[in-house]
Amino acid sequence: MGAWSRIGGVVAGRRAKFVVLAAWVALALALGPLAGRFEGVQQNEPSSFLPESAESVAVLEASDRFPSGEATAAIAVFSDPDGLDAEGRAAVEDAREAIVAAGPTGVGELPPPVTSRDGTAAVLTIPIVAGGDEDVLVAAVEDVRDLVREGLPSGVEVEVTGPAGFSADATKAFEGINSTLLFATAGLVFVLLVLIYRSPIFWLLPLVTVLFAEAVVRGLGTLLAEAGVVINGQTGGILLVLVFGAGTDYALLLTARYREELHLVEDKHEAMRIALRQGGPAIAASAGTVVAALLCLSLADVNSIAGLGPVGALGVAVAAVAMLTLLPALLLVGGRRAFWPLVPRYGTETGLGRGFWSRLGPRIERRHRRAWIATTLALGALALGTLGLDDDLTTSNLFRSSVESVRGQELLERSFPAGTSAPTIVLVTDPARTEAAREAAASAPGVVEVGVPERGEPGERFEVTLAADPFGEEGFAAIEPLRRELRAAAGDGVLVGGPTAEEADLRTAVEADTKLLVPLVLLVVFAILVLLLRSLAAPLILIATVVLSFAAALGGSLLLFEVVADFPGEDPSYPLFAFIFLVALGVDYNIFLMARVREEALSMSTRDAMLKGLAVTGGVITSAGIVLAGTFSVLAVLPLVALTQVGLTVALGVLLDTFVVRSVLVPALTFELGERTWWPFRLRPGRREPQVAAGETA
After folding, report:
1. Residues 360, 601: Cα–Cα separation, whole Å
2. How far apart are CA 593 and CA 541, in angstroms?
């Protein structure tokens, strides 16, 4: 406890608090310009998520060494159910000429339009060379969409789709995402803090602290992105929620201990030093668990998953540091009056250990076996919902609202093979084998057309049009068989890429990352719990309960999605993200409870320690769980299905952890095991050890 005593002495000093405030203001001002660029450094192109080892990446990297370069196609689909007459066909030509005349930045040479066999539709391919600049691609697509609509005759409709159209719509979906989340999350946290503390003043202090932390994290996140870490809009949204949710949780835990000490200690500075000494280790252990779990993501092959690791860990770490330094300084400046009208006065009753939570413990203890068996069965029943997991969420159905690229794909499929909008690219490194590869491609199942070869420095490449939706499950499933057939006919120098192959490779990489990261995160969290609780039995119990809670939250969410929301499926990375957040954040509440129980078990039996620990931590942990669940549920306001699903699942899981696992299951199991909870070590009541956790109260 020496370190925490010194930290408390520095942070809670009569003059030091002003130094701490000044330091945070200076840091926020210094990083302000970088924070403003955070959205600008995000990469939302699907190809940027792929691991370097993916075959489709090799095809993509070779593109700029061909005469036609690395172009992303926008497909303008003109359609008239009654057939394109002379006026309609002329309108298509006029649209082509208008694009050529306007010359939008990034638009390359346009080929002639192609009319469908039934004469009801025509497609115009617009190659866009953006050089990886999302702003150029979005602007080019928007210009094309405006130009193709000029002067259309009645009865003819046009939509712009293709890889460029989907990329532009995805990028636009992330525009303003952080502003939307910031206002929604800040508003929700404000309401919850007012309800929890019943004070019209106090809410301002933790909210200001979180905003400072969020600004610093955004600035540091920009530096990470410029150093090569891939950050996309999804990562940025999750980061904001993590900072607000975890930061507010830590604020509640520290403030609860500080309020308790204000009843016992006359000097507010001494009360804060005690609160930091007693509560700091539990907050640090909680943040350390989340940080360690998130850093495991850095080992992922998928860049978007690997990028969330250091960025998310940074966000939680900065939030914890802010709550252990800036918040104490603000609380000391505000003094006791900040809690008005419920001012904690020296020498008055704290209410510690009374109320609902003090009554719940004995009730569970009397029927502990029945409680843990019934709770386990109930969570297990919910977990059966995981059997309905369906990873059919793809590029073509990830939007919650109607977007033009999806409408265009549907329009195209009425008259053309679905794969026309995004041809698959075949690269043959030995030109002598190109014809063998083309013949194999032409006879491959699901292929409706093989294009003309183009020669470049890497070899030759040609396009393959699939019958299936290039952004759907059937299209993804066609990639590996196609690769096998091409290699069997033309050797290992044949590579298959293009938008469909890129997403197929992404799904394969996500599956491999999930198999690696799930056991790794469990091992890391288990090791931290062993070090914190100095036991093997207790960590095993906590890990088992959190995994059960995750399965129940996943199953319950899938049932909810099917019955209420009717989502088209789940993103392949959805179970992994839900697992990481629920295990890392869910175990937090068990840490706060069990660390306090262990502290109390040094002077009383484990049974009595659990009764006291549950009584004194119940209120504040419940409040923290509600806040965290609320902040993650804010992700549901965003226009993307994947983020909505992750947010709702984590919210449900946190509530299960708060109200079921930590409140009933863990206490019941602890009552069942008694002193064996600390196996293989034995606690000796009466011998005080350095305290490792906060004794929180609502």
Report:
1. 19
2. 13
The tokens describing 277, both together, are 């000494």
CA distance 158 to 160: 7
Q: What is the mean pLDDT of residues 210-219?
A: 92
DSSP 429-478: SSGGGHHHHHHHHHHSTTEEEE---EEETTEEEEEEEESS-TTSHHHHHT
- Compute the mean pLDDT over every residue in the chain, rounded to the nearest whole number: 86
Closest C-alpha among 587, 582, 599, 597 to residue 525: 587
What integer is the mean pLDDT of 288-296?
Answer: 91
Structure tokens at 470: 């290039």
Q: Is 119 exposed, middle or buried (0-12, 13-18, 19+ CB in 10 A)?
A: middle
Choose among 625, 658, 657, 624: nearest CA to 252.
Answer: 624
CA distance 679 to 540: 11
Q: Residue 697 gets which letter from DSSP?
A: -
Question: Residue 333, Cβ neighbours under 10 Å: how many?
Answer: 12
Query: Tokens representing 438?
Result: 């083309």
10 Å Cβ neighbour count for 198? 12
pLDDT at 350: 57
Q: What is the pLDDT of residue 533?
A: 84
* Res 548: pLDDT: 94
Distance separating alpha carbons of residues 588 and 250, to the nearest angstrom: 10
Q: Specify the pLDDT at position 151.
A: 84
**pLDDT at position 351, please?**
55
Task: State both tokens at 9.
Answer: 């002495």
pLDDT, tens digit (0-9, with 9 covering 90-100), for 657-683: 989 998 999 999 999 998 888 888 776
Helix pair 2-11, 303-334: axis angle to 10 deg: 60
CA separation for the pair 638, 635 (Å, rounded): 6
Helix (H) or strand (E) holding 202: none
Look at residue 104 and give its three-state secondary structure: coil
The tokens describing 75, both together, are 């497909």
pLDDT at 566 over 90: no
CA distance 224 to 235: 13
Q: Which of 651, 685, 662 is nearest to 592 (CA)?
A: 662
Q: What is the pTM of this model?
A: 0.84
DSSP assigned state of 399: B
By three-state DSSP, how is residue 495 classified?
strand
- How many whole angstroms separate alpha carbon 278 and alpha carbon 695? 7
Residue 348 CB coordination number (10 Å): 11
356 SS3 class: helix
Distance CA 158, CA 152 (A): 9
- Which of 290, 176, 182 has the alpha carbon at shortest distance from 233? 176
Closest CA relative to residue 248, chosen from 625, 689, 663: 625
